[in-house]
Amino acid sequence: MIEAHSLLELVEREALAAGRALSALTDDRCEQALTHATQLLTAEHDEIRAANELDLEAAAGLDAGALDRLRLDDARLATIAAGLRATAALPPIERAVRTWRLANGLEVAERRIPIGVLGANFEARPSVALDIAAQVLRSGNAVVLRTGSAALRTVTLLVDRVLRPALEQSGADAAVVGLVRSPERAGAEALVSLPGAIPLVILRGSGPSTAALARRAAASGVRTLAHAEGGGVLYAHAAASPERLARIVRASLDRLGVCNRLNLALVDRAAPALAGTISGICAELGIAVNGDEAVPLGHEWASDPERVATITLRLVEDVNEALAIANGQTSGLAASIVTEDTVAAEYFLDGYRGTTALWNATTRFTDGYELLGMPETGINVDVFPGPRGPVSYQDLCLRQYRIVGDGSQSR
To answer: Residue 206: which pLDDT band, with cuts at 50, 70 and 90?
Structure first.
């Protein structure tokens, strides 16, 4: 086991090396590197699958949701490759936003500039390593990745046999992607404790551990794009079509170990048969319906190892109560209304304050690749101006004002 102070030094060295490597990263080289990475994914396919199988065997004690996130099968490797190709094809960030001239003659330009070195912490989901790295590199930044013991073998292979060689082939410096090569929790704590070297850390995952890292980062002066909570809300309005509701419920529960799946179902008390529709679909899928009034309505079952195959179902009086619950007692990730009543739908969409409001659609579409055509670095549910919802490469910039005068201007 590496001592905490030594891990802090190791993480800082990775960050400093990544920062120095940025000078060799151009938009063209990044595009080439991501293209090369898709080719290396194919070339290293068998080794990646073998490493992932070893990770799965070692993590056999994890819950079904965690194992599902950890697994890299052929379909998921194909999805990763598609994401890399999509990111490579994205246009470079337009650094110049707008320009104007003040009455005193000053020329003012608003620009987007890179942040520098970002950190990224994620648990048992190795695909996130490439999703995040690709977006960060495309934004003109460097990254230091950190994952837990469950996925470290797979992630190390993805970094050392895919990402870094692809960067070298493109003429960039491979050190622009750093990696915390230790499974200890102290590695994650070090990542969020270096404001001078890593001013912003992306936190992917749900539950108390991610929330604790966000608090530690705040205490250290490090900003975070944190995804500490998830869970989709589905509100079945009295005017919902039972057939449409059934299709959406099924689509909302195609995967259980993800943050944007159906977590809380709210049903108008005036239409109790709709609750039966939801319960019936859950019974077919082997999903328990929670009726424990003591459990908080926003409890995220996707991150509960013992009861991941669970949703919560509650009756509500009307759309106002549904909105009050969705806004006040859940994470604010996403909420969907199912109804044939246009007025009720518009009222719900206008009243919901979370990151994604949907009508007759599953909350599973709260996803960067689905909505934006590119992988996301995470889904930010914080309530402050800036990137919210699925975060992409375009959000990983700082606003800067550039001002040019002639020396005659004064206040």
So the answer is: low
Q: What is the pLDDT of residues 376-404, one digit of tens each?
A: 888 888 777 678 888 889 999 999 999 99
Please identify, in words, the CATH class of the domain defined by 4-228+385-403. alpha beta
DSSP 339-377: -S-HHHHHHHHHH--SSEEEESS-GGG-SHHHHHSS--S
Q: Other C-beta atoms within 10 Å of 67: how many?
A: 17
Beta bridge partners of 122: 147
pLDDT class of 204 with cuts at 50, 70, 90? confident
According to the model, what pLDDT value does residue 381 have? 82
Indicate the residue type of 248. I
Q: Which CATH architecture has domain 232-369?
A: 3-Layer(aba) Sandwich (3.40)
Taking the CA atoms of residue 164, residue 166, residue 171 and residue 172 in that order, the dihedral angle to the nearest 10 degrees is -40
Burial 291-312 (b: 16+ CB within 10 A, else e): eeeeeebbbbbbbeeeebbbbb
**Is pLDDT above 80 for 227?**
no
Checking if the pLDDT of 4 tops 70, the result is: no
Domain extent listing, the chain: 4-228+385-403, 232-369
Exposure pattern of 71-84 as b/e (b: 16+ CB <10 Å)? bbeeeebebbbebb
Tokens at residue 37, please?
Answer: 């990475």
